From TrEMBL:
<dbReference type="Pfam" id="PF08568">
    <property type="entry name" value="Kinetochor_Ybp2"/>
</dbReference>
<protein>
    <submittedName>
        <fullName>Glomulin, FKBP associated protein</fullName>
    </submittedName>
</protein>
<dbReference type="InterPro" id="IPR019516">
    <property type="entry name" value="Glomulin/ALF4"/>
</dbReference>
<dbReference type="InterPro" id="IPR013877">
    <property type="entry name" value="YAP-bd/ALF4/Glomulin"/>
</dbReference>
Length: 297
């Protein structure tokens, strides 16, 4: 209401048409103004599209895809902040924008817009990521999966993506006409990123346990569901590579981990025998040593 009263038509303001560029003598002033404007416009978009304030004044002909594309920049502004309350506004705006769109209708070309790839990399809400995945078409899902497997560096997020890949393969195998993105050569290229240990046998198995268990679950599913004679997924022609690049390094890594923990147990037992245990003092009071059984556990 205030914006309209001072002569700025509301629809024109929300879509930021005809903005005049102010030139400052000092670059930092201009950068600060741009940041404040981005924050302000993102907040305005939240009030309009999530809270519904004056949304009836916007043109009704705007498509859901256009509104999603328009709001992605604002969503990214919210998600770059650290305050939980601000991040939640970004996720609400993303949810509001996605719910307007039909499943499997968001074309893969939208991923060429920078913010469409950067927004899902936030780890704050897997629920929003799942909603985002559901809206993308097959090629978009495939592209996003590849991107996140390469960039997330988070075992839980990667496990989540691998589970989604399994779901897409399952749907493809149940259809009379296979989805080319989740069978054959395209799938094998994706599996190269899934059935893989980041640092070979030296990979920290505990740190990467979510991802490794999801990968093994997917491999087990493929062996059971895809008949060797049909070989719809292409798995059976790649078993040799999977053995060398994933299963053998995993086997070596498990043996190394087992040897490491056995050595830790032996050291603990020897320390108990010698009773050469260090004590810990907090605020002048000595804390009792951990019982041997607890240390071994």
């Amino acid at each position: 209401g205030f914006l309209s009263a001072i002569g700025h038509p509301f629809p024109k303001m929300i879509f930021n048409h005809g903005r005049k560029k102010r030139t400052w003598n000092y670059l930092e002033f201009e950068e600060e103004e741009n940041k404040q404007l981005a924050d302000s416009m993102a907040s305005l978009a939240y009030l309009v599209f999530v809270q519904g304030i004056h949304i009836d004044q916007l043109p009704m002909v705007l498509s859901p895809l256009y509104l999603l594309q328009f709001n992605m920049g604002h969503i990214e502004v919210f998600l770059q902040r650290t305050e939980e309350s601000v991040i939640s506004k970004g996720l609400e705006l993303l949810e509001n924008s996605l719910l307007r769109i039909e499943d499997n209708s968001l074309l893969y070309q939208y991923l060429e817009i920078k913010s469409f790839l950067t927004v899902p990399q936030r780890k704050k809400s897997l629920a929003m990521l799942q909603l985002y995945i559901n809206k993308l078409d097959s090629q978009g899902k495939y592209t996003l999966f590849r991107c996140l497997l390469n960039t997330s560096n988070h075992s839980g997020v990667e496990a989540f993506i691998i589970q989604n890949i399994k779901n897409q393969i399952d749907m493809s195998l149940k259809r009379t006409r296979n989805n080319k993105w989740f069978t054959g050569p395209q799938l094998i290229s994706l599996l190269d990123l899934v059935l893989f240990l980041p640092e070979g046998a030296e990979t920290d198995l505990l740190q990467n346990s979510d991802r490794i268990m999801a990968s093994l679950n997917l491999l087990r599913y493929l062996v059971i569901k895809d008949n060797e004679n049909d070989n719809q997924t292409g798995l059976w022609t790649e078993l040799g590579n999977i053995e060398n690049n994933f299963l053998k390094p995993l086997h070596i890594g498990l043996n190394m981990s087992k040897a490491h923990y056995e050595a830790e147990i032996k050291n603990s037992q020897e320390a108990q025998k010698s009773k050469d245990l260090c004590s810990i003092t907090v605020s002048g009071e000595e804390i009792p040593n951990m019982p041997p059984e607890m240390q071994l556990k």
